[in-house]
């Protein structure tokens, strides 16, 4: 059990963020960096980010990676990006999609016909998964969820708004999964190089944003504030990395603002988990919210975690 700290290696610095951005619902925010999801135009910056990370010997969380050469992974990502749909016609793309569907039908559906026919009658997934919309981080691919195993919602930066924030597609999905499907686990998955988190960390507080992205990612404002407080001595790229995990934990705290979730967690009927997928090294961290040890009375909702594991 430990009070959450996405990276215990960062030093604690005095708060350095402007007071004017502390309100989590501030509308007076703008984006310095509008490009998200590793868009093609940002590929150079993306690669530079990785090089900076691996070159810093003071960052203990990355020491293991420093001994490994990620260049082949980076070049693989780069070549994937550059060969994407621009070089193929729509017909080619949908022909490939058709072949993938027919392959699924032949090798998955037909061979497991009874299972799929049962799914046609209803679903009883054990997991509710909240993940980023980023095309590189599909949980079904990474964690092998099969049809019927996970009720899923994906949004920009895998965020869970608080109960007080009002309706959204994310809490609508949560309501159905928890109250109707009665899932036993909620898993929030963050990831490396998250464009939504970069947008959150890039915000200015002096210009009103008309961006839907900006209006959405302020959901994670507490994660930004905690990152600025704990990791202001790090460069911007590493602050983003810190925030990617901090944001997951803020979402775990926000989950407990829903009375029908908090009650089930308190009664042991529902468990809440965080995850972090690093697609540069292909590693996965997983942890569980420790309800009894969490401090939920303060507005900041500092949660405690337990059973942290690292899959590599
Ligand atoms: Zn993301």
Automatic annotation (TrEMBL):
The entry's keywords: Lyase, Metal-binding, S-nitrosylation, Zinc
GO biological process, one term: carbon utilization
GO molecular function, one term: zinc ion binding
EC number: 4.2.1.1
Classification via CDD domains: beta_CA_cladeB
Domain of life where this protein originates: Eukaryota
Binding residue positions for Zn(2+): 132, 134, 191, 194
Catalytic activity: hydrogencarbonate + H(+) = CO2 + H2O
PROSITE patterns: PROK_CO2_ANHYDRASE_1 (PS00704), PROK_CO2_ANHYDRASE_2 (PS00705)
Cofactor: Zn(2+)
Zinc recorded as keyword: yes
Cofactor note text: Binds 1 zinc ion per subunit.
Annotated function: Reversible hydration of carbon dioxide.
Family membership noted in the UniProt record: Belongs to the beta-class carbonic anhydrase family.
Listed name of the protein: Carbonic anhydrase
Natural source organism: Manihot esculenta (Cassava)
Lineage: Eukaryota, Viridiplantae, Streptophyta, Embryophyta, Tracheophyta
């Amino acid at each position: 059990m430990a009070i959450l700290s996405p990276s215990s290696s960062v030093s604690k610095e005095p708060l350095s963020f402007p007071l004017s951005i502390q309100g989590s619902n501030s509308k007076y925010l703008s984006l310095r960096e509008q490009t998200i999801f590793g868009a093609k135009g940002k590929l150079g910056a993306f690669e530079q980010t990785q090089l900076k990370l691996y070159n810093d010997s003071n960052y203990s969380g990355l020491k293991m990676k420093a001994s490994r050469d990620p260049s082949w992974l980076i070049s693989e990502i780069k070549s994937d990006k550059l060969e994407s749909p621009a070089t193929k016609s729509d017909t080619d793309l949908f022909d490939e999609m058709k072949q993938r569907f027919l392959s699924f039908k032949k090798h998955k559906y037909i061979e497991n016909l009874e299972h799929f026919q049962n799914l046609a009658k209803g679903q009883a997934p054990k997991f509710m998964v909240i993940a980023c919309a980023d095309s590189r981080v599909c949980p079904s691919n990474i964690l092998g969820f099969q049809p019927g195993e996970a009720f899923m919602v994906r949004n920009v930066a895998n965020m869970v708004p608080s109960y007080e924030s009002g309706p959204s597609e994310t809490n609508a999905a949560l309501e159905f999964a928890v109250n109707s499907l009665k899932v036993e686990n909620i898993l929030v998955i963050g990831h490396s190089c998250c464009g939504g988190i970069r947008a959150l960390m890039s915000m200015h507080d002096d210009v009103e944003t008309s961006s839907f992205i900006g209006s959405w990612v302020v959901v994670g404002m507490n994660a930004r504030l905690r990152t600025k407080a704990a990791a202001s001595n790090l460069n911007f790229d590493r602050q983003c990395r810190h925030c990617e995990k901090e944001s997951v934990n803020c979402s775990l705290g926000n989950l407990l603002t829903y009375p029908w979730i908090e009650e089930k967690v308190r009664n042991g009927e529902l468990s809440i988990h965080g995850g972090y997928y690093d697609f540069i090294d292909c590693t996965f961290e997983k942890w569980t919210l420790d309800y009894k040890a969490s401090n939920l009375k303060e507005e900041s909702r500092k949660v405690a975690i337990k059973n942290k594991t690292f899959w590599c």
